Amino acid sequence: MSWLDEALACLAARPCCGYHADAPPATEPTALAAMAFLAHGTQAAAETALGWLTEIQSADGSVPVDASQQGPGWATGWAVLAWRTALSAVPLLAGRQAWAAAADRALGWVIAAKGRALPQSPLLGHDMSLQAWAWADGSASWVEPTAIQLLALKASDLQSHERSRAAVRLLRDRAVPSGGWNCGNNVVFGTPLRAHVQPTGLALAALVGEESAEAETRRAIGYLHKALSQSTTTASLSYALIGLAGHGQRPKPADGWLAAACGKSLREGAPPYALALAALAALGPDCPWYHKSSSA
């Protein structure tokens, strides 16, 4: 059995999954698993995961981090992306109507949600007035939640929407001068900060097709080619490979790195979050993050 078959089997045994094998179900890993199931033809598991996401959706359209709380809603974009992927699946799935309605409600929340604009600080190198998406309600905008919602908007054919344009502006503004992204700080006390692999891969994925961000994406691609190695962890490696694939890039050792990293994860507890990301990274440019869904 290949590492991919083993990863998908582990995920299918518990389609509504958490960040670790014994953790309660959470929105992000479950949505990622649903997309992996859809892409690799594991229909029954996909339907179970998508149904769970629908069940925990809040009245305001947001999807909480897990079933135990009513917020924050930053994971909503992942649910939208999973539902939109299901709506474009062939053959058509039985839950199509419910998922379309859930995705529409969630999009309403995504469009309305905004990070807080803050006064500019002379200590920071980024524009504090830009409003995209935050981790928590009422807080400032950050790179990863912004990239997640941008992917959801693009999957919903809203790439020209003002909120999508606001997301692109923030991601460009928060890029580290030497290339890539971290959580969202690029210069502090006049000192350029270092990029991190995972947010760089995610931001690159969100910026596919953005000609205005060509300089930022070019530097980020260069950063990832230098930063990746056989010791990169499964989740970070997967995000990086997905982001690079969207720009037609794939390091020559990528397949070996992914097999070794995921094999290690399988031996050390099989965390669903990492396995789902690895299954998506194995798709290269066919990752569903880049596919527009048909209208419901």
Structure description:
With 296 residues, the chain is mainly alpha-helical. It has one domain (3-290): Alpha/alpha barrel (Glycosyltransferase), CATH 1.50.10.20. It is built from 12 helices and 2 strands. The chain has helices at residues 3-12, 27-40, 43-56, 76-87, 96-112, 143-155, 162-174, 197-206, 214-227, 234-245, 254-267, 272-281; strands at 187-188, 191-192. A hairpin with a 2-residue loop joins strand 1 and strand 2 (191-192). It is globular and about 50 Å long.
Characterize the main sheet.
Answer: 2 strands, antiparallel
Helix- and strand-based class? Answer: mainly alpha
Order of helices and strands: HHHHHHHEEHHHHH
Helix amount? 40-55%
The CATH architecture category equals: Alpha/alpha barrel
Oligomer: single chain
Q: Which stretches are low in confidence, meaning pLDDT under 50 for 5 or more residues running?
A: 292-296
Domain module count: 1
Instruction: Report, as a whole number of angstroms, the end-to-end distance.
Output: 37 Å
Please tell me how large the radius of gyration is: 18 Å
Shape category: globular
CATH fold naming: Glycosyltransferase
Q: Indicate the CATH class.
A: Mainly Alpha
Number of helices: 12
Q: Could you report the average pLDDT, rounded to the nearest whole number?
A: 94
DSSP strand content? under 5%
Spatial ordering of strands, largest sheet: 1-2
β-strand number: 2
